[in-house]
Amino acid sequence: MNFRNMISPLLIIRFFEIFLSCTAFSLVANSTMFHSQYGAWSMFTWIFAFVVTILIVVLELTGVYSSIPISWEDFTSAFSMLASLMLFTTSIMYPSVYLPDCKQCARPGAATAMSILCFFAYAIEVGLTRAKPGEISGFLSTVPGLLKVFEAYVACIIFSLLPGAYPYAGLQWSVAVYSICFIITALIIILTIGRLLAMLPVNIEKVLIGFNILAVAMYITVVVIWPFYFFKLIPDRNSCVHGYQCPWDNGVGVTVLTCINFLVYAVDLAYSFKMVFFTVQA
Description:
Elements: H1 9-31, H2 37-62, H3 72-98, H4 106-129, H5 143-161, H6 169-193, H7 204-233, H8 247-279
Helix pairs in contact: 1-2, 1-4, 2-3, 3-4, 3-5, 5-6, 5-8, 6-7, 7-8
């Protein structure tokens, strides 16, 4: 047992994460206000963050993590980024769905507060584990690595909002772009955690820059094509039925998230270009 880590700021933050996530899902479970896709997602987020954080703490305190054949630093950095994004989404989605019309709001309101605090705790962990300039660290703890997790997460939300039919070639191209960029980004994350990225017989840094250039170029087309064809297919909210998911709202959400992911890939490209061609040369 490694008791020296018990007083580290990172471990203290993780204990707060465990307490806050556990409190959030316990309050919601007792209030029974989670019987919908939004409530199920919120419960999954809190339980997922709780279970994985406990696992990380136990493995680090016992020292078992050192015998696991993965890049532990990359794994924990990627998880903290993913958890903060999931909790950010949940902290907005859950109260917007369950608080407006609730009659007994104490438990869901308290759960929302716990969720928001838990988000801030994971955001602090991301800041604590992020690689500092000039520091030798895992790729996923650098800004481009954290952006990769962000890009993959946004793509997952886009997939959840996409409609089931694509009668126009422009919409089919947009879905292809989302899929290609997500698959490659997820593959980069998996290979990095598995310590396999550096074993590939290519210049990884320049390959990543090439992929970012391609992703930015492809997303530029989708930023224009997706809203043009989607709102040509569904021009207004008249097709929506009260009480059901509105395809027009989904189209707006996909449009906004497409613009966000385009900007993230552009920032990723700028950081990667700076790290390879300026920081290394300096």
